[in-house]
Each structure stands twice: as structure tokens, then as C-alpha cells.
Design brief:
By secondary structure, the protein is an all-alpha fold. The protein has 4 helices and no strands. Helix 1 runs antiparallel to helix 2, helix 1 packs antiparallel against helix 4 and helix 2 packs antiparallel against helix 3.
């Protein structure tokens, strides 16, 4: 599987799990459906960015760092728009970025160069 495709698929799956962690915050349980959809989209966006980065740069530590930064940044934007719950939003979002950054570098395949 290509690095961007792994990023998108894994980002979407982990985004759903990220969104479901909102259940542990009782004040937002009634908004769980919207949170899961938003977190899934955030995971897909992070997966695309991390996947294309992994396609260009072939370094596990740099890929993980980039994943952490992308995940934390996107989660920060969501937390800023919500006006609160920074820890509850940024921690799982950063973990999504870390896992996707690792997986795209470790398991993603770079297409073979075409022979002319």
C-alpha cells in the first residue's frame, strides 16, 4: 500500500477512535456524533499530509516528528475553535499524528521508479 493511502486509511480509523474519546468528557456526550465526524475528517487531512511527507522524506524519526506536529497543530486548531478542552482534544490528536507518522514511514511502500 502506498504511503499516502496508509495515511488516509489509518488517519480515518484513528480519527474515529479519537472522536470516540470525547465520551469521557460528560459535558460533550450529546455532541458525540459531530465530534466523531470532525475527528475523522481531521484524521484524514492529517493522514494525507503525513502520507505525502513520508513519500518525499524517508526517515522514521523525521516522519514521526512531522506526524506529531501535524496532529498537534490540527488538534490545536479544533480546540481553539471550541474555546476549551485543549488537553482533551490535543492529546489524542497528537497521538493520531504520531501513529500515522510511524506507520507511513515503516509500512508504506514507495512506488518503484519507471524504467525508460
Amino acid at each position: 500500500m502506498s504511503k499516502p493511502l496508509i495515511g488516509v486509511v489509518l488517519g480515518a480509523v484513528l480519527g474515529v477512535i479519537d472522536g470516540l474519546t470525547a465520551w469521557f468528557t460528560p459535558a460533550v456526550r450529546d455532541q458525540l456524533g459531530g465530534i466523531v465526524i470532525g475527528s475523522t475528517l481531521k484524521g484524514i487531512i492529517a493522514g494525507v499530509a503525513i502520507g505525502f511527507f513520508a513519500k518525499k522524506f524517508h526517515s522514521l524519526p523525521i516522519g514521526i516528528l512531522f506526524g506529531v506536529l501535524v496532529g498537534a497543530f490540527l488538534a490545536y486548531l479544533v480546540a481553539f475553535m471550541q474555546g476549551g478542552y485543549y488537553f482533551e482534544i490535543i492529546l489524542p490528536g497528537t497521538l493520531v499524528g504520531l501513529i500515522v507518522g510511524f506507520a507511513t514511514q515503516k509500512y508504506g511502500r514507495t512506488p518503484a521508479a519507471a524504467n525508460s
